[in-house]
Amino acid sequence: MAQHHDTHASHGADAHESHGSLKSYVLGFVLSLILTAIPLILVLNDIVTGSAADVVLLVTAVLQFVVQLFFFMHLKEEKKPRYNLMTLLLGLVIVVTIVAGSIWIMKYNMVAH
Amino acid sequence: MANVAANHSSHDHDHGHDGHHDLEALRTMGFWIFIITDCIIFGTLFATYAVLMNSTAGGPTGAELFEMPGVIAETFILLTSSFTSGLAVLSMNRGDKKGLIGWLIVTALLGASFITLEVTEFLKMIDEGAKISTSAFLSAFYTLVGTHGIHVSIGLIWMIALMLQVAKRGITPVTKRKIGNISLYWHFLDVVWIFVFTIVYMMGVR
């Protein structure tokens, strides 16, 4: 985020779009509003029910995450090597392991039931 | 000493960087690492909630307690504040100090109304007898949603402190990095809220 490549032509390609533009922020905002409206309309009005509703909810939430990462947090504009991206991926692996692992082990834990 | 400094900067110049720039970029990366650790904290709290969400011990369930209009308002308020904190960064990049502080004020006001709504919701639930000690479900609920609320509150205090600093020192590489970091933090809190909204509230009431 805190890069300023005003003088350095060598970064020209990245520098061009860095920090995002008003256009990309507005687009990101509109997308995030749409991605919030979709589950609200579909699920609260019972248009989609059961496990299909879970899928809609989770997919829109993950897309919302992606929108925030790329339109607002400018992850793709990071200069190489992409340490921030690598850290994020490591973190996500840990998070998915914790969440999926906990649910799985509690669901099949016969002692608990 | 001056000689060393001069050497240093000319050396760096060859690489198309300046030393300060590298240090600020490194600090931003440190902030990313902090965000990831926070991500892991929320991951464990989400896992706890997912495991305990049906353990209501005869107490009220999410479907009985949650009132969606308030939660939907909170969601749109936080989404908008994520956008306005982005506009603050855009103003900063243009060197527009007034715009930067103005958008930060808007962001902070939105954040404060989010917290107000959330606290009101909590108080109402407690009034109805849904306390943190009522069931495992509610313990997990208050811990998860409350941790997010505490993050937003700390972000608000931090944001106000930064506004004062920017007003005093102007837009320097250091304040630029700090504003960039709080903006990252704010977007991250928005992401966490989206998952709270989806997993706790939407899946709770349907």
From TrEMBL, chain A:
Predominant subcellular localization, coarse grouping: membrane
Protein name: Cytochrome o ubiquinol oxidase subunit IV
Protein family (similarity comment): Belongs to the cytochrome c oxidase bacterial subunit 4 family.
Membrane topology: Multi-pass membrane protein
Cell location: Cell membrane
TM ranges: 25-43, 55-73, 85-106
Keywords: Cell membrane, Electron transport, Membrane, Oxidoreductase, Transmembrane, Transmembrane helix, Transport
Species this chain originates from: Cohnella hashimotonis
Alphabetical list of InterPro entries matching this protein: Cyt_c_oxidase_su4_prok, Cyt_o_ubiqinol_oxidase_su4, Cytochrome_c_oxidase_bac_sub4
UniProtKB/TrEMBL annotation, chain B:
Every Heme-copper oxidase subunit III family profile domain range: 29-205
Keyword Secreted: no
Membrane-spanning ranges: 31-52, 72-92, 99-117, 137-164, 184-204
Source domain of life: Bacteria
Keywords carried by this UniProt record: Cell membrane, Electron transport, Membrane, Oxidoreductase, Transmembrane, Transmembrane helix, Transport
Quaternary data: Heterooctamer of two A chains, two B chains, two C chains and two D chains.
Its biological purpose: Cytochrome bo(3) ubiquinol terminal oxidase is the component of the aerobic respiratory chain of E.coli that predominates when cells are grown at high aeration. Has proton pump activity across the membrane in addition to electron transfer, pumping 2 protons/electron.
Family as reported in the entry's similarity comment: Belongs to the cytochrome c oxidase subunit 3 family.
Keyword Cytoplasm in record: no
Stored InterPro entries: Cyt_c/ubiquinol_Oxase_su3, Cyt_c_oxidase-like_su3, Cyt_c_oxidase_su3-like_sf, Cyt_c_oxidase_su3_a-hlx, Cyt_c_ubiqinol_oxidase_su3, Ubiquinol_oxase_su3_dom
Main location: membrane
The encoding gene: cyoC
Protein's membrane topology: Multi-pass membrane protein
Protein name, entry field: Cytochrome bo(3) ubiquinol oxidase subunit 3
